[in-house]
Specification:
A 3-stranded antiparallel sheet has the order 1-2-3, with no helix packed on it. It contains 13 helices and 3 strands, in the order H-H-H-H-H-H-H-E-E-E-H-H-H-H-H-H. The longest helix is centred in the first third of the chain and has 21 residues, at 64-84. The termini are far apart. Strand 2 (167-170) and strand 3 form a beta hairpin. The chain is 53% helix and 3% strand.
């Protein structure tokens, strides 16, 4: 029998397999990498078991929801391993009797966004290119005003940007339909300025946003740079760290809060927002309302008024 692959190798194969179907697995890859290191150290060469997954998931002073989230990441990986190794045990759902709940995101203030964009000007340039400050200023600025997922922005190519029409075409992936997103004229100008500078330095680049050698910006590099840019900003959500993904939450929650205070059909705008954000299902958009108490109260008052007007006693 050939030697069993290490858990680290299996995780790498699993991520490659799932990403081939369009899944990003951006957050899961960190959990799975940590699990692989733990498993290879504690039980090298052994099959994945429920007890091993639980030992890893419960490490540290973590809340029950964190344990549930960790097991959720391992569960999909375990199903993949079970095809290769019948001795694999798949952790059952609700193993810890703690439902997986989404944690409240950080919502940026306008002053915080301005601070982050100003800090990009102080980023050290790459040794091979001076483009780094402008790359991250443009990338973060695009995420701020469009609510794109980081992976969507990093996959953009020149052909997806239409400066004349003022649009960006976001290709479809497994979890999100393709869409064409209209841009504000100031966003178009910023993208065009970056595109011209990038073409001057890397005329053969295949992606819109590039790193030091003209290759695509890597997710880990973007995350690391963003953590540097947000230093000193105190999180107002349920997480210890502020994420790039919180820019997406900020756009959506602020729009919904603003619309709920206006005398316009909120439901119609929510459907439009769902399409704009690339949500496959509308309930994914509702998540952005959950942590805006004032928004929910305003929406409830409007719905009650509508109900009384259409159903008089």
């Amino acid at each position: 029998m050939p030697p069993k692959d290490s858990m680290k190798v299996l995780v790498r194969r699993y991520l490659t397999h799932r990403r081939g179907f369009g899944y990003g697995l951006i957050s899961q890859r960190f959990d799975l990498a940590a699990f692989a290191r733990f498993a290879d150290r504690i039980a090298p060469g052994k099959s994945l078991t429920v007890s091993l997954a639980l030992r890893w998931a419960r490490r540290g002073a973590v809340e029950p929801v964190t344990v549930a989230n960790r097991l959720s990441a391992v569960r999909g990986f375990a199903r993949f391993c079970a095809v290769l190794d019948p001795r694999t045990q798949v952790p059952p759902k609700r193993l810890t009797h703690s439902p997986v709940r989404r944690r409240a995101p950080h919502i940026f203030t306008d002053a915080q966004v301005t601070l982050i964009l100003r800090r990009t000007q102080g980023l050290l340039p790459w040794r091979t290119s001076s483009l780094r400050p402008l790359t991250y200023r443009t990338l973060i600025g695009l995420l701020v005003c469009t609510g794109f997922r980081l992976g969507e922005a990093l996959r953009l190519r020149d052909e997806h940007f239409d400066a004349v029409a003022g649009t960006l075409r976001v290709p479809a992936v497994k979890c999100s339909p393709g869409r064409v997103v209209p841009l504000h004229p100031s966003t178009v100008r910023a993208l065009k300025r970056y595109q011209n500078r990038r073409k001057a330095q890397f005329p053969t680049a295949t992606r819109f946003f590039v790193g030091p050698l003209g290759h695509p910006v890597q997710t880990c590099s973007a995350d690391r740079t963003f953590r540097h840019l947000v230093r000193g900003i105190r999180p107002n959500g349920a997480r210890q760290n502020i994420r790039l993904y919180d820019l997406r939450h900020t756009l959506a929650t602020k729009l919904i809060a603003r619309w709920s205070r206006q005398s316009v059909p909120l439901a119609h705008r929510l459907v439009m927002l769902s399409r704009y954000l690339g949500h496959k299902y509308f309930h994914h958009t509702y998540w952005y309302v959950q942590h805006q108490r004032a928004t929910l109260q305003a929406a409830a008052v409007r719905f009650e008024r509508y109900h009384m007007e259409t159903n008089p006693r």
